[in-house]
Amino acid sequence: MTDQIRLSRVPEEFLPKIVTVFREGYGAAALRADALAGLTVAIVALPLSMAIAIASGVGPERGLTTAIIGGFLVSAFGGSRFQIGGPAGAFIVLVSACVMTTGIDGLITATFLSGFILIAAGLLRLGTYIKFIPYPVTVGFTAGIGVIIFASQIKDLFGLTLTAGEPAEILGKLEALWAARGSVTPQAVAVALVTIVTIMAVRRFRPHWPGMLIAVVLAAVGAVALNLPVETIGSRFGALPNLPPLPALPVLDRAAVMAALPWATSFALLGAIESLLSAVVADGMSGARHRSNAELVGQGVANIGSALFGGFCVTGTIARTATNVRAGSRGPVSGMLHALFLLAFMAVAARYAAYIPLAALAGVLAVVSWGMIEKEEFWNLVRGSRGDALIILSTFLLVVFRDLTEGIVVGFAIAGLVFIKRMSDATGLRQGELPAEEAGFTAGDVLVYQLNGPFFFGAAAQVGGVLDRIAERPRIFAVDFTEVPMIDSSGAKSFEVLARKMHRRGGRLCIVGARPEVRRALQAQGLTEAEARYLPDLAALKDCIATHG
Q1: Does pTM top 0.90 for this prediction?
Q2: Which residue segments constitute the domains of the chain, with CATH numbers given?
Q3: Where do the DSSP E strands lie in 108-258?
Q4: Pairing with 113, which of 399, 433, 448, 525 sits 20 to 30 Å away (CA)?
Q5: What's the gap between Cα 244 and its chain centre?
Q6: Cα separation of 62 and 280, whole Å?
Q7: In this predicted structure, what is the pLDDT of residue 53?
């Protein structure tokens, strides 16, 4: 009873979806459906979790730990009914850079801190705004990440030996890989090709089968049976543990926190974007609606939990979430069960993972990276308009050649400028008609103009000069605001300045048909009745003309 009272006090937007599912009624049939969906997702997540961890510069066991602990907590505390959490390909670039800069301990500290940033973002209701990342930005940075992931797998795809290490920066990486072209291992190339072809063939002819797992198992069995001289998980990382480590606090002294904080902020930003995009995809597939702020809080809890067990960044994963929906999931229990199935694999069969060739996992990530580059959407945006082309190309190029966070921030800023320009162009000003002679004035003494569209700072800069020139002529200048849905402080201030100029010349500004919220905004900037007349419609303008005369 006490728990029910406590839950009733939690605002609905912060309530985990699992509470909603249990309130609706959860029976044996739903549990069977969730168990099947959870097993299906676990089969997909198993090779991906290890591959993403290895590509990120950490051991495969950390990928499994992240999927187990983080995946369980995302489903238990998140705001999406179908979200599957775990390590994501989008984080490979950031995680590998963080490991190179701060080491594994720094990565765990950054993951831990990012959890608190995500919780704070959720409690501050920032999830409502993070969902508004422009589509060209998301397509651009996803494509950029896909290119970087593929570049990071070239070494294992071809079995190259780099004596001086592999640079993080993509141009330096490609230069080093080209210099090592003489060390290509044909057997590794064959394993990678078999893996890629198997995945694509299964997708084509048996789309409901776990193509990635089948391909990895086939590659491992073939490599062992033929005694191929290829690098494996065991030869690089040793045997995998049978269980995640016991929980322990990361390093949290002042120096460690200051070094990890920039990475934590980047993890939180990317995690928020990725998880909410995944939740939106799940909503579109299922017809459900996620709670964005609860989702951020759940992601925060999951990252804290993952870090305590030695894992790294957790986020909602689009491919695994979509698999969960297609597999018939009824709610978050399937995500929790997927984590338990992974735990069971780790306990029973972790030792067999040592035989998996790294070339096979590179092949898996090559397929994933190719899928991340939404080629048709990318091309449609490039050729759609100059504004969208500028946004997507700027984001893409900055992500690939500079920095992921920089690409998102700059892309978002350019998208904002393009939006301002488009909204400014949508604001129109045209002359209306009034039989001014009836009031005793000549037609040039009274002018009526109609303003259409939102009047904000961008439109004020574009239309303001025109209004000033028009207002130099008439005794009475009436502006019809009937079709103006909103006005910001900049737009309102421009009319206050206009009214004062007319008042000094003995003229009068009339505001016609302004909505209550528009009128309040104008008055807040000093445009009172002493400066201008507020009229309900154009019919009342004749009385205003007669009074002014």
Answers
A1: no
A2: 2-22+31-161+184-374 (no CATH), 428-548 (3.30.750.24)
A3: none
A4: 399
A5: 29
A6: 28
A7: 92
